[in-house]
């Protein structure tokens, strides 16, 4: 008797219950992150923004390298933090609802990429703080994640977000006064890289014909050929599953 084998070629799609549970965790994670950012802002404001001055990233200053992970929590003014809070929550939630652990790794990667681009390429003695790099990183991640993971819902979300917020890319190019376009660009690159690094790994397909069922002598029952059966239909089954989760079936 031939040994049974698995025909799945990708990760098991999350059930609606699992998606809701992950979305709930993502909501509380982003709520907690925003709470921390606003508490830091309150303390910074009370100290006349000494924290922002002391923990900003300054290009070429080796002493500010450890501050790369702290600077995204700091802002220069109430207007600065207010303009960042909405996009940070929206894009952060969309980046986190597929898995909080993956999201935390993504956040560290984006903070590093944004801060390092500023540290290496910013000109002059410019002090940079703010969550804008995280926002651009989450944006880039959300837009392309579905392409790497091959998730229908995430692909649709990426298309909608990309079309709706494409104007954000205008402040990730040189020439925007008073804005750290390098921090934005670095965050965006980190988010795109994170979409690939944290993608769902898919198992390779079994070799064609390697596990073809044997036909007993005298049995003329047609056997499924290459490309038929549940193995070849796994991608279609995943698509139906995603459509069902989205409420389209």
UniProtKB/TrEMBL annotation:
Catalytic class of the enzyme: hydrolase
Region (Disordered): 206-236
GO molecular function, one term: peptidase activity
Membrane topology label: Multi-pass membrane protein
Protein name per its UniProtKB record: Rhomboid family intramembrane serine protease
Pfam families: Rhomboid (PF01694)
Domain Peptidase S54 rhomboid, chain residue ranges per copy: 68-199
Transmembrane listed as a keyword: yes
Gene3D superfamilies recorded: Rhomboid-like
Gene Ontology biological-process entries: proteolysis
Subcellular location: Membrane
Keywords in alphabetical order: Hydrolase, Membrane, Protease, Transmembrane, Transmembrane helix
Species: Streptomyces hyaluromycini
UniProt KW Protease keyword: yes
Taxonomic placement: Bacteria, Bacillati, Actinomycetota, Actinomycetes, Kitasatosporales
Coiled coil: none
Transmembrane segments: 26-43, 103-121, 127-148, 155-173, 179-198
EC number assigned by the record: 3.4.21.105
